[in-house]
Specification:
Layout lengths: L15 H14 L12 H8 L3 H13 L3 E2 L7 E2 L3 H19 L4 H21 L6 H16 L2 H17 L4 H9 L1 H11 L7 H16 L3 H30 L1
Antiparallel strand pairs: 1-2
């Protein structure tokens, strides 16, 4: 059944389609909506979620891009599901549940990110071809977010930078994995950003250093920049988790 599960507060207007897409995606990945099932009409979904049909169309477009549904003119949208996307999406849902039961597992996510991103940065710096414009654009968006002083926006752009870094490697499985882990990575950034001593400017500079060392074709320096950045983030995460524990006690 296509229904919103737990909207504790109305989502921001620009997030409406994303909220609908996330809800529908979860229902597909958990099997509540099976391959071959047809979604209700756009108007029915819009009424169910209390959003406009435009938001529903945008949400379905997101799902189509992910390989989860197929649209044909004059027919209702059908669930098709890409197998790789399904596997990684299910993995991401299981990880969400794991971290919800014990936030301390976020430390292990940082370890995974360190292993992946250090290798990716080093590999990119060895290549003779220029890094893609998406990676540089992600850094520019991070700069704008830092200038705005909006911590929530910065967290999203921060995660976007790391997703763009991994996508630049051209490995479809890694790219898909990071796309599914996007919300978890944002959660880590949000938690660590609660530490008062962490500034947006310093965080931006760490990302700029990663970008510039990859662009300058220095593999060792690029790997070190990523390692230092994630180590710093892990330290802030430890402080934030400790503060949360002390508050609970």
């Amino acid at each position: 059944m296509v229904t919103p599960r737990d909207l504790r507060k109305p989502p921001a207007r620009e997030r409406l389609h994303a909220t609908v897409a996330e809800e529908l995606e979860e229902q597909i990945l958990t099997g509540e909506l099976s391959v071959g099932d047809r979604l209700p009409s756009e108007s029915a979904i819009a009424q169910s979620f209390g959003v406009s049909t435009r938001s529903v169309r945008e949400a379905i477009q997101v799902l189509e891009t992910k390989g989860l549904v197929r649209r044909r003119h004059g027919e209702r949208t059908v669930v098709v599901r890409n197998d790789v996307s399904h596997f990684l999406g299910t993995l991401a849902i299981n990880l969400h549940q794991l971290f919800a039961s014990d936030p301390a597992y976020l430390r292990q996510l940082m370890d995974v990110r360190r292993m992946i991103e250090v290798e990716v940065a080093e590999s990119l710096a060895r290549r003779e071809v220029p890094i893609g414009p998406e990676f540089s654009q992600a850094l520019a968006e991070l700069r704008a977010a830092a200038d705005s002083g909006d911590h929530e926006l910065f967290a999203e752009r921060d995660a976007g930078f790391h997703a763009a870094l991994v996508a630049s490697a051209g490995n479809a499985v890694l790219t898909e994995l990071y796309r599914h882990l996007f919300d978890l990575i944002i959660s880590v950034i949000r938690v660590s950003s609660r530490v008062p001593t962490k500034s947006l400017e310093r965080a931006y500079e760490e990302h700029a250093r990663i970008h510039d060392r990859i662009a300058s074709r220095d593999p060792a320096a690029a790997a070190q920049a990523v390692r230092e950045h994630i180590d710093n983030s892990a330290s802030y995460l430890e402080i934030a988790l400790r503060q949360a524990q002390e508050k609970d006690d």
